[in-house]
Amino acid sequence: xxxxxxxxxTNPKQSLPLNKISTxxxxxxxxxxxxxEHLWGKxxxxxxxxxxxKEVGDFLTFNVAxxxxxxxxxxxxxxxxxxxxxxRGRRLAEGCGRASQFRCRxxxxxFNLDGKNTQVLDRQDWDGALDDERxxxxxxxxxxxxxxIWICMDTEGESLAEYLETMPEYLDPFxxxxxxxxxxxxxHLGVNWKVALEAFMExxxxxxxxxxxxxVSGNDYTQSYAHGKHAHFGYWKDVQPLGTSSPRLxxxxxxxxxxxxxxxxxxxxxxxxxxxxDRDFAAAKKIMDILPPDVDAMTAMGTxxxxxxxxxxxxxxxxxxxxxxxxxxxxxxxxxxxxNCVTLPYFDGALWYRARPDKSEPDNPDKCLFEIWSLKRYAxxxxxxxxxxxxxxxxxESVCLILDQDxxxxxEVQAGMKSSKFAYARPNPVQEMELIxxxxxxxxxxxxxxxx
Amino acid sequence: xxxxxxxxxxxxxxxVRARVGDTVMRAARVAGVxxxxxxxxxxxxxxxxxxxxxxxxxxxxxPPTGDEVALLEDLALRKAGSRLSCQIVVTEALDGATFxxxxxxx
Lengths: 452, 106
Ligand code: FES
Ligand SMILES: [Fe+2]
What we know:
The complex is a heterodimer. By secondary structure, chain A is an alpha+beta fold. Chain A contains 14 helices and 20 strands.
């Protein structure tokens, strides 16, 4: 062996350090408590959708960690307050509804939509002692983006626009504010809120978790990148049209490209019922009639998408004008919006996930509330009235095939991480950057600095 | 005993025989007028007894107190003629008077 070769053998090429995610982030009660103290009160959070508050007096409540926030439509726009009566601490509002004022059911103290205390029963009993005391509701910052109502309990600090960083550049073209609920599911899960969310923060799991999907979803290899606190992944490398089989599989499952494309839209419609829509599936089926059997895969996919676009326009729904193919490509497929939301947007539909600790036991790292919202672009006034489906035992109740497959991993991960041998996760540096960036950012909020 | 006429939001007219000295809110509740709630029992803290008095009715009752005026300010559905019906005492002068019920209370 020549000397250079020996050098090479003993001095292998410098590799990148391994990214590690400590199990403490998912399993430790102290960490959960620290999140409740240092995270939720400092960040901007999705409290609901703008269209949920239509008339002056409409309100909704949003609970996270030990806090409850009430958001209402006041005479001059949205207002938000800590949902607590300054007298003895009773929560003021519950759920959602319509009210001209917030009246505490305990002793009748009342507050108007401006948060001002308007009534203290028998106020003279305090003999002036309340005069210098703050009796108004504690304000919370509120703003909107992408059709969502965002709140921040920290009365100072970054505006929502600053908080979102460059993300709107990527997501604004989808016009999520034009979408409305198609369906809503609320899952009560025995896992950490991050375990639930992270099942939707990478495309690396698709081949193993959703094997049926990769027969028609093109190349399932993903790349992922951080954008400040937030991150995304997409299919940018060796791109293959939808309807073709993953290069991980031998051969193409559907030699007739049209059948592959239709099968892709069928799976998304029937097994996910989100992102792409029933309108897209119906439109895609038309390629069987208008394209020849030997059409190439790119034309088959392009025609199906174009027909879907046309169907949306014919339906009166319209197409987001700024959403060019370039904008679609730039956005990628999936965004993590720090800390607790994930979205997968398309031109006429989107999936939106929101996770948080269970409200009955926010310090318990083994419990969470996980919401899945399917949004869709509807022609004006055509949106359905949607009730939230609450699922407390997902082993007994199905959401849909693809999401059931994802959800089946969750309790196994939460339990598996408790193994004495498992101290940290080893996320994929190319495909799982959303997770890596998530924990780095999270640790900065919760611990003051990231562990790595 | 005077008769009061409530016009519910859907347009239904309810004629209520009221006792002099009672309040308009209680008279409406006893008669089951839809839309007059009166959660707080009349201590002016719930604002769920809100109603509108046409000019002709308003002339037959004393004006609201300063406290009531201040509370009415906060009602999302406030308009001219807004009153809290728990603050209006029934008198013979109210016989045949009309009260309009708002679209929602709270
Ligand atoms: S009954 Fe409550 S304010 Fe009139
Ligand atoms: Fe998945």
